[in-house]
Amino acid sequence: MLKKILGTILCATMAFVAFTGCAGSGKKKVGVSMPTKDLQRWNQDGDYMKQKFEAAGFEVDLQYAGNKADTQLSQVENMINSGCKVLVIAAIESSSLGTALDKAAAKKIPVIAYDRLLMDNENVSYYATFDNYKVGQIQGNFVKEKLDLDNAAGPFNIEFTAGDPGDNNAGFFFNGAYDVLKPYIDSGKLVVVSGQKDFASVATPEWSTATAQSRAENIIGSNYADKNIDAWLCSNDSTAQGVVNALDARYNSEGRGGQWPVVTGQDCDIVSVKNMIAGKQTMSVFKDTRTLAERTVTMVNQILNNQTVETNNTYNNNKKEVPSYLCDPVFADKDSIQKILIDSGYYKASDLGM
Ligand code: BGC
Fold it and tell me: How far is ligand 1, taken at its centre, from the CA of residue 236, in Å?
């Protein structure tokens, strides 16, 4: 009997909470929609955002969508229905949230595209990100300098691995790097031995490590029996990790020797930083997710307080020029780990096995 009464009270309380949202607490609720828990960075983005929004007096509804665009759509719709006053979204597929964005607009809920631009819909209020084209340029320039393309005789062999075609950022990263390297490919100083050099051929659905690895294994098996690979331009760390696994088989297990290639990445994921320490990934690009989370909280506060929202750029999403704030990506290699990642408190030395 007592159990039954307690059960009834609990149910009634839960129903009340669900109905009122956070009206009782007097706090405004922000919906934060992240793509996946599978990649390290989104866990950090989500955690920082939760911390920083809570510290600024908000309630946070943080959801991860398991890299499924339809799950993300229903999560965002639930956020709208449950009383969120503002939405922060890192989209899985840049164009697939239109119906939710329209619903948000009907309820006058501002939407911030987080890291990845929401495309093909006018109901995107602001965009907070890093300079994604610049990320690619940093990677491309690194390869150019490491191989000394302006002075060395060459030719050098290179392969490319890019990101998820549904992620609007992936093209920016690839183009940023390719635009730096194209003149050397055109002149024959850089040779893409597989012949795969357009974005569609080198893209990696879901930025998957396993997919990047099996593609790299195929490329190595079919093209590099008697050739060395001088560079592998990877757009981010999760794909670089797959490529490094494939290179490990070619250069270490098979003992065929040769110079380990220059391998690029982005994010400074722990696994990749360890690979940098081991000399298997040559560089990464550090995008301090604390900075992006802070910027997003600032934007939300400015929007909700009717203040001028600070931006430093605009991005066209095929429907409007979205006012944007671009944070600065930072080059990272083995020698800068201590300063950029440990001294700044981003990682503990023990996280990196140091
Ligand atoms: C982000 C990268 C990340 C990639 C895979 C991109 O949209 O900008 O930092 O590596 O998604 O999660």
Answer: 7
